[in-house]
Amino acid sequence: MKTSALSVLGRRTGPPPISWLMQTALSRPKLISLAAGFTDSPTLPIDISRGVLNRILRSPKTGRPALQYGITTGETNLRRLTARHLQKLDAAGVTSQSHSWKQVMITGGSQQLLYMALEALCDEGDLVLVEDPTYFVFLSILQSRGIRARGVRLERDGPDLAHLETVLQRLKKSGELPRLKAFYLISYFQNPTGVTTRFEKKRGILKLLKQFERAAGHPIYLMEDAAYRELRFNGPDIPSALMVPGGAGRVIYTGTYSKPYAPGTRVGFGLLPEPLFTSVQRIKGNHDFGTANLLQQLLAGVLETGLYDRHVAKIERRYGRKARVMKQALTKHFPPNVEIWESGGGLYFWARLPRNISTGVKSKVFQAALKNNVLYVPGELCYADDPARRKPDHEMRISFGSASEENIREGIKRLGAVLRKFLL
Ligand SMILES: Cc1ncc(COP(=O)(O)O)c(C=O)c1O
């Protein structure tokens, strides 16, 4: 048979690199994976969740609604609690602007919101700016939907604003600016580099995007992905871009309860300006007409009892400790000519080898690491296909999220031994 029944999108969508990495990890029982973005299993909140679920399911009055379909935009109580929670995080903000719960949408993980926001904004061939490097699953969505990406150089305190301006100028000159819809920014403890964007830079990004809106002919949104915001073990929190005066109309803020509470719940949320809120609400109506109600009730329960805050404080200490263990191991075992980007939160360290040493899936370093039973995420997977530059392939993302302290020490020792062979 010559033709395929699959749609253009069905045929175009490539295999997600994450599946291959996970499969590799699972098929080798002795392998230590420093690749997965999984959270720390031993601290997952089993007791808290059991208690809250028991309370919900004890009486028909609370149990039945939790087991029934809900509302597309999410359970009202959870939307209110989420707005209040975000308000508390942003309290150190520069203005007294408040977040309205009516702008909050509850989604199936923040991943669903990222997908739906792109559905609402982008047609095939449209453009999105991303940090260089960025979250590889986001790149997979772009690939699948035929959306083009342009990378903006990343510095230790956020995107390089001068480079952002150059990229925008270039798009204006080539007549492609009308295709540009958004800048996707992972603003806290970024995946994969651990970088947190300074508030002043968020202000700068919004100002630049605004400057180019006239030439674009429409708003250019800032998609602020704050997935790791609450996994913070060092330094103060930074207000979101929603707190930039005038920013709220242009910021799509996405957050999640996966990382700070439990990925198994896959409850995410977002704050969206109009007309996006309505558009995404309709799209979600077609996707699933509402996130799992029982899980929303669980999250509402842990938020309103204060159990959530206590849990987050506990895991922040836990990740802080694991990050210190990894740092010590890196100092001890990695060659000195590997540059390490350390973070005050999140799950990742970013290691940069000399430029001439490849870390890609087919590289000698990656194959030797596999042979030594240790896995990392090759940096090249985190770079968009951008015709303006060659994809760097000399970096690696190493995670301290799911591995035990013992495995972090052993994994870094194995990886260090591999690197010493190639670098010294
Ligand atoms: C940067 C980033 N954004 C979003 C997500 C999606 O998380 P979830 O759908 O569980 O909220 C992840 C997951 O790893 C992530 O790393």
Molecular structure report:
With 424 residues, the chain is α/β, with parallel strands linked by helices. The chain folds into 2 domains: 8-44 and 314-423, Aspartate Aminotransferase, domain 1, CATH 3.90.1150.10; 49-308, Aspartate Aminotransferase, domain 2, CATH 3.40.640.10. 43% of the residues lie in helices and 15% in strands. It has helices at residues 8-12, 17-27, 46-58, 60-66, 76-89, 109-121, 136-145, 161-173, 199-211, 213-216, 276-287, 293-304, 307-333, 364-371, 405-423; strands at 32-33, 104-108, 127-132, 148-155, 158-159, 180-186, 221-225, 251-256, 267-271, 339-341, 348-352, 374-375, 377-378, 395-399. Helix 3 crosses helix 12 (293-304) and helix 8 runs parallel beside helix 9 (199-211). The protein is globular, with a radius of gyration of 22 Å. Pyridoxal-5'-phosphate binds at residues 37, 109-111, 135, 186, 191, 225, 227, 256, 258, 263, 266, 268.
Topology:
Elements: H1 8-12, H2 17-27, E1 32-33, H3 46-58, H4 60-66, H5 76-89, E2 104-108, H6 109-121, E3 127-132, H7 136-145, E4 148-155, E5 158-159, H8 161-173, E6 180-186, H9 199-211, H10 213-216, E7 221-225, E8 251-256, E9 267-271, H11 276-287, H12 293-304, H13 307-333, E10 339-341, E11 348-352, H14 364-371, E12 374-375, E13 377-378, E14 395-399, H15 405-423
Parallel strand pairs: 1-12, 3-4, 3-6, 6-7, 7-8
Antiparallel strand pairs: 2-9, 4-5, 8-9, 10-11, 11-14, 13-14
The structure holds pyridoxal-5'-phosphate.
